């Protein structure tokens, strides 16, 4: 493989995955619609970092736009597609479910149809641990995930189903990666760790939905990028694969670590637990170990420290970002 299309390349996971592939010598064509779901300044920061690489080209394209996508498929001989473009966020999906369906299902279908048309044999699809709501932990890939509790999760389930159809009909090799609570430098400002660091550093109240005992299988972004790259480079047929930290931590523990590395104390405000949130997540990663030869390397303590250090180095940028 040499030339890879990465959608959502200015997004959090897309940015780090693109960087990793560029450093490995791939030619990467990155696309992103640069939407304003969260502050575009952060996407522009990531994109500026990527444009330092000679083997990277960027186009502002929406995966919902089939005609614009096809221009790229005609122009570049892609060896693989990594679809990281998505509408993310459980709570916002309840307010505006329509864009989740069009981006996450229609957009994925557009990419799969063009992959079929132009003979691209490898496709990696980003999915989510949100599908496991209500299941027994640790979450295994073979659990029935037929009752999503948010439009976001439902749209990801739909994307997975469409992907299987294209594998079955056209023999496209597809790896579906269910990510577990990804965090790290230049993360999404709508996610808890970015917000907690910013609020504590700026001595603003930290809002927690629930009592802080809810648990997440936090996974450092570099580990996720490496797992995604391994999926690109591995023939799997059609497989759903968990990528997670393999150990759940309470939100309280995360806040303690942030306080420690910032040297500041959090002022916490508790609000009611949100109905569409999950109480806990925990990935079973045996399949990733077996198929991808992958497991996470960065423990939570190290990952939070790296993330806090990035925040400190980029305070001026972060002050301007709304959360």
From TrEMBL:
<dbReference type="Pfam" id="PF16363">
    <property type="entry name" value="GDP_Man_Dehyd"/>
</dbReference>
<keyword id="KW-0520">NAD</keyword>
<protein>
    <submittedName>
        <fullName>Nucleoside-diphosphate-sugar epimerase</fullName>
    </submittedName>
</protein>
<feature type="domain" description="NAD(P)-binding">
    <location>
        <begin position="5"/>
        <end position="307"/>
    </location>
</feature>
<dbReference type="InterPro" id="IPR036291">
    <property type="entry name" value="NAD(P)-bd_dom_sf"/>
</dbReference>
<dbReference type="InterPro" id="IPR016040">
    <property type="entry name" value="NAD(P)-bd_dom"/>
</dbReference>
